[in-house]
Amino acid sequence: MMPTKRMCLLAILGAMLVRPLLSAPPSAWEKPASELADQIAAILGPGQAHLTIRNLSTIPTDEIPTIRRLLTQDLKAHGVVMAGAESANTIRVTLSESARERMLVAEVGEGTQSQVAVVDLGPIATQTATTQERMELHKEIDLSAVALANGTTLSSDDPVMALVEAGARLFVLRKDSVMVFARNADHGRTVEASLALDLKRPMPRDARGVLIAAADGNGFTAFMPGTECSGTFSPPAETAALPHNGWTVNCHASDDPWPIAVDTSGAPQLKAFYNSARDYFTGVVSPSVGVDLPPFYAAAMLPRSAGNAALLVGGIDGRVQMVENGSLRVVTGTRDWGSDFAVLHSGCGAGVQVIASSSGEAASDSLRAYELPALEAVPASAPLAIDGTVTALWAAPDGKSVLAVVRNAANQYEVDRVTALCN
Amino acid sequence: MLRRFAISFSLVLVCVCAGARTRPHYGGSLRVEVAGDPWVGPEGLARRLVLDGLTALDANGFVSPALAVEWQSDSGDHRWQFRLRQGVHFHDGSPMNAVAVVMALNTACSGNCPWTAVRAVGSAVIFTSDSPMPNLPGLLAGGMYLIALTRTADGQTPANPIGTGPFQFTSSNNGQLTLTANESCWQGRPFVDEILITGNRPTREQWLDLNVGRTDIAQVPPQELRQAQQQHLAVVVSPPVELLALQVSDAGALTNAVLRAALAQAVDRGALFNVIFQKQGEITASLLPQSLTGYAFLFPADRDLNRAIELRGGLTAPRFVMMADFDGTMQLAAQRIALNLREAGFSVQVVSSPSSVRPDLALLTLPIEGADPAAALETLLRSAGENVPVAGRNPTALYRAEHDFLDLKTLVPLLDLPRAWAIGSRVRDVRLRADGTPDLAGASLEGTQ
Q1: How many Å lie between the alpha carbon of B22 and the closest alpha carbon of chain A?
Q2: How far B183 CA lies from chain A's nearest CA (Å)?
Q3: Hey, what CATH class is B242-417 in?
Q4: I need a labelling partner for A23 at 20 to 30 A (CA). Which of A319, A337, B9, B37 fits?
């Protein structure tokens, strides 16, 4: 089915991969070349040697002349002068790498004896330059980069369950903590607090949660299976700084329903009871919508004509149904939908679209916009490829963008903001 | 080029099988067939489902908390303190505490342990040693140090394994092991209700069962990856997680290090790679793979028959006994190596069962686990029966440690091998652990709930 012409492809701000730094500035090689020359000279002592360089790494080969020049200079300073292949002394430098680190390896041969010198060039991940640029250029929320800077591991064992922006803060719900990020002067994010949550029961494996923040960003409530936590911010006095930069958090056991739809002020429009031992809502909602709902993974309030609203639910049986005018009906055209969707107030076309993840039939995950003029989901954009698996989708508080939590191929989580550009 | 292709192929297969996007469903019985005993050996599939360690390796191979939530060392890594997770219970309901953990560790490791003593202090477990234990957190993630209850509340020795893992042992009948979901697992209840593991099943019969829907997961030995592809099986392949190596005794005639060096030079890794293992895995002469260290290329892997003959120096050595697992591929590989050695003037007899006499040569597979090269090296050496603490953490120190050990010629690395599994169509979200075994607690089945 062709997408409508009223909208263009969804633009993802920040779905770009962190690309490895393919070329380092010449100065970047000065220190490692100097260190390697020190080690080589300590083995060889002053004299002549034949230098060869080969590349077994992803470092661009055009860096080799720079490395050769610096190494030759540094060796010369130690009294080691370059000679031809007839020299009895050989220095064979290899640009090598493991899965995580790059290194310069020198095999120093003196006659039949050979010794090895290694200079570690550091983790490949930190040799990237585009992460910070990505955040500056696109105001992208990059949890991976921020957390990495604070020494936090971001493996798949610690998923990002939910997030919300309020005031100048971003709140991220992890498996047993809430991370509070503050916006800094250059529009980036820094960790203001990492608040441990006292969970009252073990989390299910497909961990899910809901995070609601106060409009001014000075508080939050986190709903998790069997546990509800509230966080409040009290500005610390200048003379007595509080732990966690003024944040306190309290948790208690709770099976109360979770807010699954909020209005623009943050007040809950609809709450739903969650099955704390599983990964879905039971189907019981408050206030009642007048019909019995099936157990569901996701639900969203969809504005309809004349100021009315319909409730869209994605059942655990894979069917998407809509509650409108007191009746529950199946929505067709949703066979490709995954378990998560969110409503986007794009202003394009009908003004409101549903952003749905894909069902996993294809080799890679994707997001796509749909309109629901009746009981059929009509694609309103081409699929937007996502490099990883979408594990959660949340509408931003203003409804004008959708935040997608993506587990990438490296088993790390990143958050992508998805907006729509109108044709 | 071939290696690059193999790696790319592996990644593609993993992505295809792990790419489902709908949320996992709960319920159902997952059926698994394996060639060996699912409970035997540190990497036995069932052990990892029933038992937890103090630490674990996450999907990227880094050490992460498990039954211990934090740890710290002092006295130059001679003493480590691990603080235990609170509120965890064994499958029989008894609490997992420091006393139970110490008893389990003393049972699991009665000799050649990384530590000299282990004791319980409150909710902590303290390890002490005469020599530094810089890699202890990584070592404790290994399969040999999993925590099993050794005494029930009434003081009895459990008849069946009792752990804290996502599944509990239910029964073992006619070669089939039944494990049921641990509803109160500290990591969260697994998605499937039970796992049925049939052991000692030949690979071809496993594949047949997979094709007709009688099982959901089957093993794919590395040398049969190509056939699995031809049969259009959906396969997940790990990075190299096993080292095929030839262990050489340093007793008897082989006390002579030059003779051991001659044996090492005579082995033709290329023939093993091309013929026996059907170009799967990677040829290596280092203990750890290039992807883990970045320096593996420094160890030359080419055969030098002339050098081997030269090193033997006309010496007529006694007939050596080489032991290899009864497994057909290992026997074939051993016969191939024996042929290589005969070409260098050695006489070798291949046997499949351990005898009371220590063999002169043994063909082994050793684990390559985790992202920390130092811990991986120490784990590998301990698996080979070598008590060699690896203290250095930088590449130069690690290279020297590996070089100095290999210079003894008591262990000759041959091939780095992956592990692979064929996955049935109703199984989803199967991810491989750092040791290449499937994480079945995170797998779910379509059409359940």
Answers
A1: 5
A2: 9
A3: alpha beta
A4: B9
